Amino acid sequence: MIIEPKYKGGILLTAHPEGCKKLVEKQIKYVKNNKSYNGAKKALIIGASSGYGLATRISLAFGGSKTDTIGISYENGPRGKRTGTAGWYNNIFFKEAAEKEGLKAKNFVGDAFSLEMKDEVIKYIKEEFGKVDLVIYSLASGRRKDPIDGETYISALKSTTGDIVGPTVDLKNDTLIQQTMENATEEDIKATVKVMGGEDWELWIKALLEADVLEKGARTFAYTYIGPKITYGIYKDGTIGAAKRHLEKTAKELNKILKEKLSGEAAVSSNKALVTKASAYIPIFPVYATLLFKVMKEKGTHEGCIEQTHRLFLDMIYGDNPIIDKEGRYRPDNLEMEEDVQDKVNELWKQINENNFKEISDYAGFKKDFLQLGGFEVEGIDYSKDIDLETYAKLIP
Ligand SMILES: NC(=O)c1ccc[n+]([C@@H]2O[C@H](COP(=O)([O-])OP(=O)(O)OC[C@H]3O[C@@H](n4cnc5c(N)ncnc54)[C@H](O)[C@@H]3O)[C@@H](O)[C@H]2O)c1
């Protein structure tokens, strides 16, 4: 079958296995050609199949530490005419490359929020993998079934300060349109905190501690976004911001526990705004990203997932130059937050309209990143070639 990108709003519905493979290889090549660090021996990455989680796994395994990894994700393989998700293929190709170098790379595909998944992973660590010295929490999800009360919570990307009208990109028609981010109800806020807050991270760390599968000195990090003032309405002061505040509170609590029990550490890392499956879906956010990319590319400070994540581990988590703010958050987003960068973004934000957005923003770069989430627009791939999905369906992640 010929696989083409199909998308609805900010969601990509198809994935190209050969393109995904090439992009995983590209990330591996980037870290191999970069400076290395002495990092974790054995890591568990929750949300490992795309975006920041995948970049984390690649940096750890191929960036000099030769870390054995367990990756958890929620993805689908090809079935009938459905191509399967990009993360499904990323899992397969990461594992293939890691095993070629003699590393352990185990994939668990299923619901990380469930108690069953926690039990399965712990059993595997005990019986085959060995104690873990790093746990990364990089989940982004729209829903969560709470394993304790059995209720399913649906997160909402809404404002808490009244309806917000702003520009966004229509990726299908390559136009700039106006979008409204609605004001949240109390229910929306509660549900978003349930899904994207720290509750599940805490359940994971407590379960791992109780099962005695964390190494002495074990560290855990969860990813967050803070962003500049211009995005506060849609992010920091929105439902997602409420969830991230809960995540930060959880980090402080987990830090106390890990310090006391294992001389370990728990913290959040505030990462740069990038195009991922999760962020492309946030209303209005894409326009901020297109302007940010333009300014950072011109300044020469733009980073993608792998560059940002590798720097986080190399310089900060396992390096001598950590940037940690007064709240104890790691700040690899320092380059995004530079004053001159934000001044220019603000200036462009005032000017942007449907006639000039392709010139004054990096819309082309943003769209390419978006299509590459599904393995499209990758150099060297012949997209007119027939892909036999049956062959890919036989591969086990
Ligand atoms: N993209 C950005 O601009 C940005 C910036 C800063 C921080 N972050 C944060 O980084 C983290 C990761 O986000 P991302 O942007 O890399 O998103 P992503 O969509 O690329 O990755 C999300 C991961 O979570 C997994 N997942 C989702 N639901 C699951 C479930 N029920 N069980 C198991 N796995 C599940 C997916 O399979 C995938 O591996 C999030 O906390 C996000 O807020 C993102």
UniProtKB/TrEMBL annotation:
Subunit structure: Monomer.
InterPro entries given in the database record: Eno_Rdtase_FAD-bd_dom, Enoyl-CoA_Rdtase_cat_dom, FabV-like_NADH_b, NAD(P)-bd_dom_sf, Trans-2-enoyl-CoA_reductase
Active-site residues per Swiss-Prot or TrEMBL entry: Y235 (proton donor)
Function of the protein: Involved in the final reduction of the elongation cycle of fatty acid synthesis (FAS II). Catalyzes the reduction of a carbon-carbon double bond in an enoyl moiety that is covalently linked to an acyl carrier protein (ACP).
A GO biological process held by the record: fatty acid biosynthetic process
Binding site for NAD(+): 47-52, 74-75, 111-112, 139-140, 244, 274-276
Domain Enoyl reductase FAD binding intervals: 324-387
One matching Pfam family: Eno-Rase_NADH_b
Gene3D superfamilies found in the cross-reference section: NAD(P)-binding Rossmann-like Domain
Name the record gives this protein: Enoyl-[acyl-carrier-protein] reductase [NADH]
Keywords: Fatty acid biosynthesis, Fatty acid metabolism, Lipid biosynthesis, Lipid metabolism, NAD, Oxidoreductase
Catalytic activity, as annotated: a 2,3-saturated acyl-CoA + NAD(+) = a (2E)-enoyl-CoA + NADH + H(+); a 2,3-saturated acyl-[ACP] + NAD(+) = a (2E)-enoyl-[ACP] + NADH + H(+)
Entry binding sites for substrate: Y225
GO molecular function, one term: trans-2-enoyl-CoA reductase (NADH) activity
Gene name per UniProt: fabV
Pathway noted in the entry: Lipid metabolism; fatty acid biosynthesis
